[in-house]
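Fill in residues.
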């Protein structure tokens, strides 16, 4: 399952695109950062 995120944690912009690898990775088109989003089970 891919977790959705609305803002880049580095620059705060919203132009985010999913990446194929690594799993659950996103790329910010504005600052070119790539980051992974993980969830915590409650």
């Amino acid at each position: 399952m891919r977790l959705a995120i609305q803002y880049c944690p580095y620059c705060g912009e919203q132009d985010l695109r999913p990446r194929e690898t690594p799993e659950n990775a996103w790329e910010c088109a504005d600052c070119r950062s790539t980051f992974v989003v993980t969830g915590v089970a409650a």
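The two ends are 16 Å apart (CA to CA).
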